[in-house]
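Input record (one chain):
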Amino acid sequence: MSRLAKPAAVAVLVAAIATVLAFLIDPAPAQDTPIDGYVARLSVDDHYNSKGVRLDNVAAIIRQDRANFHKFGIRDPEDESDGFFSNKGNRALLEKMLRKGKTPGWVYDAIVNDTPLIQVTVYNDFVEVAILDENSGAGGAPAGGNPPVADGGGMPASGGAIGDVEPNTFPANKANGALEK
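The corresponding structure, as predicted from the sequence alone:
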């Protein structure tokens, strides 16, 4: 092997090793796979905090729904259990996780201004919310009027449409079924 061939061979070998190490250290990101999920009715009880103050943003309403379910035992007939938001610390992450998701603004509007049946899908670092039924038929928005929506807005994007989501199929929830009041 000539003197010029040795450095070229070493450079090729170093490049090959670097490529292999790059894949081992930083593999391609996994597909977004749901880690948990549930269906819940966001009733009037979920639109008020424990001090009776009307909640006016999506994260607060969904968080209150999960606190009502897991901590206070206040449950609507359609409410299902979940493992992720049974933890108070995980409930505190909800606003950040919603911001990272792609839930359309009109879904946020429906949550703040009505009592919809929703499906929440939890991923490793974000949450998606879809409307399964716009309201309970009990007269629309919770008492207290229609406050401005704090988060959301805009036109519908893919997903989130009424009726486009199958009922909850997460294994943990399927085994438990929906809990009754």
